[in-house]
Amino acid sequence: MAISTAPAPGQVTTARPSIIVLLQEVQEKYGYLPREEVVRCAREAGISVAQAYGVASFYNLFKLTKPGKYTIRICQGTACHVQGGQGVLERLMSELKIQPGETTADGLFSLEIVACLGACSMSPTMVIGDQVYGRVTTKEIPRILNRYRRKG
Ligand code: FES
Fold first, then answer.
1. Residue 105 C-alpha to ligand 1 middle, in angstroms?
2. What is the Cα–Cα distance from 87 to 20, expressed in whole angstroms?
3. CB within 6 Å of ligand 1 — which residues?
4. Both ends of the chain: CA-CA distance in Å?
5. What single DSSP character describes residue 120?
6. What is the pLDDT of residues 48-107, one digit of tens each?
7. How far is residue 66's CA from residue 64's CA, in Å, rounded to a whole number?
8. CA distance to 35, 62, 83, 95, per residue, from 20 (Å)
9. Domains along the chain?
10. Has this prediction a pTM greater than 0.85?
11. pLDDT tens-digit map of 1-17
């Protein structure tokens, strides 16, 4: 015999919102998950803060740290890798003094690795904000970064 967990018509339920839905709303609003919002979401969902962080850290769509003003997405897909994308990534890490997933101390840049930007014919490729950079060379990196540093 099947047991129904659905509430009967007119029955008052104590159903709590899904922690994933709550965290998604916060991620959309802030671009990351501020601690006080994670605490609030945990309370609303009826789970512990540690459980909420467990969910947040499991899904890589959730960011636990505030992103930089400019997010650099560097492609490490096959086409970009073959065309020297690893060297471009290493130059970015060296210039910014951060690893992928981190933000510079001045809060200006975040660095992310992506699998393909859909611009393989221009590999190696990276995107800063909404600006696409194709056939990027390691020598160009300082000049490109300085452009954003001057803008602040
Ligand atoms: S593999 Fe880099 S843009 Fe497609």
1. 29
2. 37
3. 75, 77-80, 116-117, 119-120, 123, 125
4. 65
5. G
6. 999 999 999 898 789 888 889 999 999 999 999 999 999 999 999 999 999 998 899 999
7. 7
8. 15, 10, 38, 36
9. 19-58 (no CATH), 70-151 (3.40.30.10)
10. no
11. 444 445 566 565 567 88
Instruction: List the beta bridge partners of residue 73.
Output: 112, 127
Taking the CA of residue 117 as reference, the ligand 1 atom at the shortest distance is: 3
Q: What are the structure tokens assigned to 13, written together?
A: 């339920």
Ligand 1, atom nearest to 85 Cα? 2
Residues 6+ apart with CB under 8 A from 45: 16, 17, 18, 19, 22, 52
Which ligand 1 atom is at minimum distance from the Cα of 79? Answer: 1
Question: Which among 79, 102, 92 is positioned nearest to 127, based on CA atoms?
Answer: 92
Please give the structure tokens belonging to residue 54.
């467990």
| C-alpha span between 133 and 122 (Å, rounded) | 8
Compute the C-alpha angle 128/124/130, nearest 5°. 20
Q: Which H or E run contains 51?
A: helix 49-58
Measured in degrees and rounded to the nearest 5, phi and psi for residue 69 equal -60, -40
Question: 1: helix, coil or strand?
Answer: coil
| DSSP state string for 75-90 | E-SHHHHHTTHHHHHH
